[in-house]
Amino acid sequence: MHPKRVLHPTDYTESSRPSLLEAIAIANENNARLTLLHVVESLGPDRLSYGESARADQPEALRGRLFEELRHILPADAHVGVDYVLSEEDLVTAILRTQAKFHCDLIVLGTHGRTGMRRWLTGSVAEEVIRRAPCPVLVVKGPRPPADLPEYPATKLHPGQLVQSDD
Predict the structure, then answer these.
(1) Pairing verdict, β 106-110 and 137-140
(2) CB contact at 8 A, 43 and 69
(3) Are the CB atoms for 52 and 84 separated by under 8 Å?
């Protein structure tokens, strides 16, 4: 696979940092363009205080600040062409719409690693994107301590795991 355009949705959290670095590395290796997407609650005047909304240029000033925040997540040593996208849609819809609009042939996103009841209540953005995206999706997890695995009582008849090597 040699992507020409890589999409990275970010929420600025530490859990999205490893996927950003991976997206940059893939874009560099393939001379691909990177599209950074950040989804916000609103891009309009409803996000402004009463005093701020009195000035006509405030929504544009807010959007400028949001674009500036998005530009600051890129490391200084990242030498890739970048498109910056802000969206106020549902997160999954924003990812899929951005992928289609920019013809991204790879989506690289992070995961918060929610499990159990929290995941059941909130759903998994990564799973939904994987199911619905028309292109490959790479989900990058940040470093975590290894999971505790249950003991497996191996026997002669059921050894649990066998390994062979050609070396």
Answers:
(1) parallel
(2) no
(3) no
Q: What six digits make up the tokens of 65?
A: 């600040």
What CA–CA distance (Å, rounded) separates 66 from 146? Answer: 36
Tell me the C-alpha distance between 17 and 103, whole Å: 23
Q: For the chain, which domains are there?
A: 5-140 (3.40.50.620)
Residue 131 tokens, joined = 């199911």
Q: Which residues pair with 39 in a beta bridge?
A: 87
Residue 144 exposed, middle or buried by CB count within 10 Å (0-12, 13-18, 19+) = exposed
Distance in angstroms (rounded) separating the CA atoms of residues 43 and 36:
16
In tens, the pLDDT along 100-138 reads: 999 999 999 998 755 444 444 445 889 999 999 999 999
How far apart (Å, rounded) are the C-alpha atoms in residues 98 and 156?
Answer: 55
